[in-house]
Design brief:
Number of strands: 17
Bound molecules: flavin-adenine dinucleotide
Number of helices: 17
CATH architecture of the largest domain: 2-Layer Sandwich
Radius of gyration: 23 Å
Distance between the termini: 26 Å
Strand content: 15-25%
Structural class: alpha+beta
CATH class of the largest domain: Alpha Beta
């Protein structure tokens, strides 16, 4: 059967586009975090929608499962196939065209294998801005962004990737193609099927193209980095800045002093902006697409008033591109610094913004009780309630010893998040990593609904089985 199956795939995509093993297949069977050891019967690289449809028909005939893969930068193992005989990786990177930019509709139609950065460059060349801001932009691809409903650094203003979507083209498990590349802003003619596929992590269909809504590029921009006494101050300041700027806060990142210390220890171009450390920091970017110069002065005035009230301890405002980049670097250097600092145990959680201070105050002593000298390296998108509640190992503990606490620490954090009605998969998705936790923490009625949707669209359980929900 194996040889026959491979021959049928070759007939669809050609011999060069079916990679069986060796060096050519290796990059597609590598999971960058090292948490999974992917394996698959073959990597298949179709050129277009028609070939994808035919690959799915072949997979159905031989009852082989299909793991969609775009840029392979996901963090939860969603594109890491795990069956050397019964699964193939369907890689989308050859579908990499921008099909159309419709200036008056302010949309672009882009294929799933286009990198986010290439899509952004095409939007920019046409005078627009595609506001999905991920550090992985040169490697991740639109199909992956859609399938994970990626978040990132500007969700507080522009929303998640889902909020860009005005139409999709999807190949279903049985090979049929659903063409909904409409670009409509209003369409109440049934259930919202676009929304069903966005965030489905390859388990309901193969997204092959999308119509994405574009924004106008910002003309006024400024970035502030504020030193704060506590998390309450961050929550108060972000809502005040939103109100004072007319909802034009486009980035809002909370940073603990531990996280800033790691960034400044490990990244040569990160320098602490203040002489004295503070317990917490808030990085805020304000931007607007209208011309003028009022936004920066509003930002500065609001921060000065906040300082007079002792809401903030100190602040620095960057107005030039290089100053803004320098301040953002203090935030974007944290994840690589954390990797360099030894094992860390990560949590991608969200709560209502107002609940974050109570959550952190409650959790930190419990973590220290569980693992003395643990380094909670907390940072994240406080403006939309999403924290990377990451725990770095104690300086004197080995990585292996720290890892032995992983399950217990996950349970400690996740149970508290669930008790406060938050999410344990805020922006990175469920993948293979959190399938069991989702079952443990979601209500049975919700799990039943997830399974019913999966069974309706993929009754043979051939699309990314074992990801998001098991049926
Ligand atoms: P992949 O990893 O290839 O796939 C991800 C999932 O989508 C898998 O389940 C896969 O099966 C499915 N899939 C892929 N393509 C398709 C398709 N065409 N149809 C159906 N299913 C498909 N994520 C954030 O949300 N916010 C961040 O700020 C962020 N920052 C990051 C920074 C770095 C440095 C890195 C390495 C990653 C970061 N990520 C972030 C995670 C990752 O980049 C995003 O999840 C991204 O959207 C994944 O895109 P991808 O093309 O790499 O998808």
């Amino acid at each position: 059967m194996a040889a026959e199956f491979i021959a049928a795939l070759v007939e669809v995509v050609g011999p060069e586009q079916v990679l069986i093993d060796g060096e050519q297949a290796a990059p597609y069977l590598t999971e960058w975090r090292g948490a999974f050891r992917p394996q698959a019967a073959a990597i298949v690289r179709p050129a277009d929608v028609n070939e994808i449809s035919r690959v799915l028909v072949v997979a159905a005939r031989y009852n082989v499962a299909v793991v969609p893969q775009a840029g392979n930068t996901g963090t939860v193992g969603g594109s890491a196939a795990d069956d050397a005989k019964g699964e193939i990786v369907l890689n989308l990177e050859r579908l990499n065209r921008v099909r159309e930019i419709d200036a008056h509709n302010a949309t672009m139609t882009v294929e799933a294998g286009c990198t986010l950065a290439d899509a952004q460059r095409a939007a920019e060349a046409a005078g627009f801005y595609l506001p999905i801001q991920l550090a992985s932009r040169e490697r991740c691809r639109i199909g992956g962004n859609l399938a994970t409903n990626a978040g990132g650094l500007n969700v507080v203003y522009y929303g998640n990737t889902r909020d860009r979507v005005l139409g999709l083209e999807v190949v279903l498990a049985d090979g049929r193609v659903w063409d909904n590349l409409t670009g409509l802003r209003k369409d109440n003619s049934g259930y919202d099927l676009n929304d069903l596929f966005v965030g489905s992590e390859g388990t309901l269909g193969i997204i092959t193209a999308a119509v994405l809504e574009l924004a106008d590029p910002p003309q006024q921009r400024a970035v502030a980095f504020c030193a704060l006494p506590d998390v309450e101050a961050a929550v108060t300041l972000q809502s005040r800045l939103r109100r004072e700027t007319g909802q034009h806060v486009v980035g809002c990142e909370l940073i603990s002093d531990q996280a800033l210390a790691l960034a400044c220890d490990y990244a040569s171009d990160c320098v602490r902006p203040f002489a004295e450390p503070s317990p917490w920091y808030l990085l805020v970017e304000v931007a607007i697409s209208a011309a003028g110069d009022w936004l920066t002065s509003t930002l500065k005035r609001t921060l000065d008033e906040a300082r007079q009230e002792s809401l903030i301890i100190d602040r620095v405002v960057g107005e030039s591109a290089s100053d803004m980049d320098r301040l953002w670097k203090l935030r974007t250097s944290i994840p690589p610094a954390q990797t360099a600092a030894g094992a860390s145990i990560k949590h991608d959680i969200s709560l209502p913004v107002s609940s974050l201070p109570a959550f952190i105050a409650d959790m930190v002593p419990r973590l220290h009780a569980a693992v003395p000298a643990i380094r909670p390296c907390i940072f994240g998108h406080v403006g939309d309630g999403n924290l990377h509640f990451n725990l770095t190992r104690p300086v004197t503990m080995s990585d292996a010893d720290f890892r032995s606490h992983e399950a217990a620490l996950h349970r400690l954090v996740h149970d508290r998040v669930a008790a406060m009605r938050g999410s344990i998969a805020a922006e990175h998705g469920v993948g293979r990593l959190k399938v069991d936790e989702i079952v443990r923490l979601k209500s049975p009625v919700e799990i039943d609904m997830l399974r019913a949707v999966k069974a309706a669209l993929d009754p043979g359980n051939r699309l990314n089985p074992g990801v998001v929900v098991r049926i």
